[in-house]
Design goal:
By secondary structure, the chain is mostly helical. The chain has 19 helices and no strands.
C-alpha cells in the first residue's frame, strides 16, 4: 500500500508540473524556437492533452512567425495572387471575346435590316395617312380621290381612248365589239370591217355570215354580228344614219349600254362621261373610293367625287393605270407612282426591280393597244400595235422607248397573249 502511494505521488507531481511546463512552453514558444523541442519532449512523454497543447502551440507559431518574419509571408500572397492573376486573364478573355463576337452579330443584321427594310418601311409610313379610316368623311374622301387623279394626270398626260376610230359610227361599233375581248384585238379587226362597210347603211345591209367571219377573232362573233348590224339598222332608220349625241338615244341602240354611251359621248362628242369598265371598277374599289359593285352605282358614287369636267379624263387615267401598272393579279406596287397614296399598297410586288418587269405597253417598252395612236402617245414613247397577223415590231417608231427591243415580239400584247387579256 505504501509503495502504491509512493508511486502515485510522482504521477501527481508530474500532473501538477505539466501545466507549469505547458505555461513555460507557451512562454518559450512566444520567445523563440528552443521551446518547440521542450514541447515535443513533453508531448512525447505525456498525455494526449499535452499533445493537443503542443499542436495548438505549433499551429499558433507560424501565425506569430508570419507577423514577425515578412520573408516567408511574401511567397504566400504571391501564391495567392498567382492564381488570381491567372484567373483575371481567364475572366477577361471571355469578356473580350463575348463582345467581339456579339458586335459583328449585332452590326450585321442591323446593316442588313436597315438596307432591306428601308424601302419597305418607308412606303408604309408614306401611305398610312392615305389609308382611309372607317369613319372617313366625304370631304376627306373627295380630297384623297382628287389628289390621286392629279397624280395620274401627271403620269399619263397622253391618256386617250385605246380604240382606233375616225368618226362616231366607228367608235360606237368598236366599243360594242370590245366586250369580252381586248381593245388591241378590236383594233386589229375593225380595219377589215370598216373597209368593207364604212357607213351604217352599208353595215345594215351586210350579209351576217360575212360579218361573222370578219368578227371571229373578237370572240362571241355571232352575238356581236347581230348587235352591230342591229345598231346600224337603227341608225339608218331612226337617226338618219347619224350617231345621236344624247345618252337617252344611245342606250336605245342594240348592244349599247351606259358604258358604251359614255365612251361615245366623251370621246366623239366631247360630253363628260364616266366609263365604268372592268379596270375602272377594280381600281376605284382598290383605292376605296367606293364599295359598290354594280356599274350604275359605281358611276353615281364616283361622279359625286369629281366635277363633270373631269369625268372623261378621269376614266382614261384610271383605265390607263389599270392596264399598265395596277394589274388585277400582280400589281406592280414597287413601280407605282402613286404608291404613297394607295391604301392597297403591298397587294402586289413591292420590289422595284421585280415590279419593273411587270409593266406593260409604253411603260414596259412594249407595243400599245392602238394601231394608229395619237401623236402625243408616240411622243411619250408609245409604240403602235401591229396589224392582225403581222409580227410585233421591235422599236420601229422613231423616239419610241423600248428597253427590251427584241422582247415585244414575245412579251408584247400580241393576240391571245396574257398582256392582251389586260384590255
Amino acid at each position: 500500500m505504501a509503495a502504491s502511494k509512493k508511486a502515485a505521488a510522482p504521477k501527481k507531481a508530474a500532473k501538477k508540473s505539466s501545466p507549469a511546463k505547458a505555461v513555460a512552453g507557451k512562454a518559450a514558444s512566444a520567445s523563440g524556437t528552443p521551446v518547440k523541442s521542450t514541447a515535443k519532449k513533453t508531448s512525447a512523454s505525456g498525455t494526449p492533452a499535452k499533445a493537443t497543447a503542443t499542436k495548438t502551440s505549433a499551429s499558433s507559431a507560424p501565425a506569430k512567425a508570419t507577423a514577425r518574419k515578412p520573408t516567408p509571408a511574401t511567397p504566400t500572397p504571391a501564391k495567392k495572387s498567382a492564381p488570381a492573376k491567372k484567373a483575371a486573364p481567364a475572366a477577361v478573355t471571355p469578356a473580350k471575346a463575348t463582345p467581339t463576337k456579339a458586335a459583328p452579330a449585332k452590326a450585321t443584321p442591323a446593316k442588313a435590316a436597315s438596307a432591306k427594310a428601308t424601302p419597305s418601311k418607308a412606303a408604309p409610313t408614306k401611305i398610312t395617312p392615305a389609308k382611309p379610316p372607317r369613319n372617313e368623311s366625304h370631304t376627306a374622301l373627295v380630297r384623297r380621290a382628287r389628289r390621286i387623279n392629279r397624280e395620274l394626270g401627271e403620269v399619263y398626260p397622253y391618256a386617250h381612248p385605246e380604240l382606233d376610230f375616225e368618226n362616231p359610227f366607228q367608235l360606237v361599233v368598236a366599243t360594242v365589239l370590245s366586250a369580252q375581248t381586248t381593245d388591241l384585238r378590236v383594233n386589229q379587226t375593225t380595219p377589215a370591217l370598216f373597209g368593207k362597210y364604212p357607213t351604217p347603211e352599208d353595215l345594215a345591209a351586210a350579209n351576217p355570215e360575212e360579218v361573222e367571219e370578219i368578227l371571229r377573232p373578237t370572240g362571241f362573233f355571232r352575238a356581236k354580228t347581230k348587235s352591230v348590224i342591229g345598231l346600224s339598222k337603227a341608225l339608218r332608220d331612226d337617226f338618219g344614219g347619224e350617231v345621236p349625241g344624247r345618252l337617252e338615244d344611245l342606250v336605245k341602240l342594240p348592244g349599247v349600254g351606259r358604258k358604251t354611251a359614255f365612251v361615245v359621248l366623251g370621246n366623239a362628242f366631247g360630253r363628260p362621261g364616266i366609263t365604268v369598265d372592268t379596270h375602272f371598277q377594280r381600281l376605284v374599289r382598290r383605292w376605296q373610293w367606293t364599295d359598290q359593285t354594280e356599274p350604275d352605282k359605281i358611276e353615281a358614287a364616283i361622279g359625286g367625287l369629281f366635277p363633270k369636267s373631269e369625268w372623261t379624263m378621269l376614266s382614261h387615267h384610271v383605265i390607263f393605270h389599270g392596264r399598265r401598272i395596277c394589274h388585277a393579279r400582280k400589281p406592280a406596287c414597287g413601280a407605282c407612282p402613286i404608291a404613297p397614296l394607295c391604301p392597297a399598297y403591298g397587294e402586289g410586288e413591292t420590289d422595284p426591280e421585280k415590279a419593273q418587269k411587270l409593266l406593260k405597253y409604253e411603260k414596259g417598252g412594249f407595243p400599245g393597244q392602238r394601231l394608229n395612236p395619237p401623236q402625243s402617245y408616240l411622243d411619250a414613247g408609245g409604240i403602235p400595235a401591229p396589224p392582225l397577223g403581222a409580227p410585233a415590231p421591235g422599236a420601229v417608231v422613231p423616239g419610241a422607248s423600248a428597253p427590251g427591243a427584241p422582247a415585244p415580239a414575245s412579251a408584247g400584247p400580241a393576240p391571245g397573249s396574257p398582256a392582251g387579256k389586260a384590255g
